[in-house]
Give the backbone structure.
Amino acid sequence: MISPTKAALGLVLATAFAIPAHAGDFVTKAQVDRSGGYNIALKDGSVARIMDIRPPKGEYKECHVDIPSVRKLTQEAQDSKKFGHVPIRLRARMDTIGNFFCLGKGNGCVVIVMVPRPQA
C-alpha cells in the first residue's frame, strides 16, 4: 500500500506537470518538417508560420509545442515590431508518462516563426 505522503507527493508532481486544458493544440517538429511549416492566425488577420522547432540539446528528440503559447508570443513579437524569422523561446515540461511539451515563455524549446508585418 502506498503511504499518504507518497500519494500526496505524486498528486503534487502530477499537477505540476499536467498537460494544459487545451491539450491537443500542439504541433511537433515532425509535423512542421512534413508540411513545410505550420500557420498561425494572429489577431489582425495576418498569418505567422512556424518554420522550425528546436528541442533543448541533449535532452530529447521530440517535443509537443503548444500552439496558443506560440500564438501569444508571436503576437508580442509582432507588437514589438519584430518581423521575419523570430526565435520564440518556450519552457520545456514533461508530463507524467514521459512526453515533453514546450509551452509558456522560457528557455526550453526554440520555435522559429516567420512573423509577418501587421495588415493595414
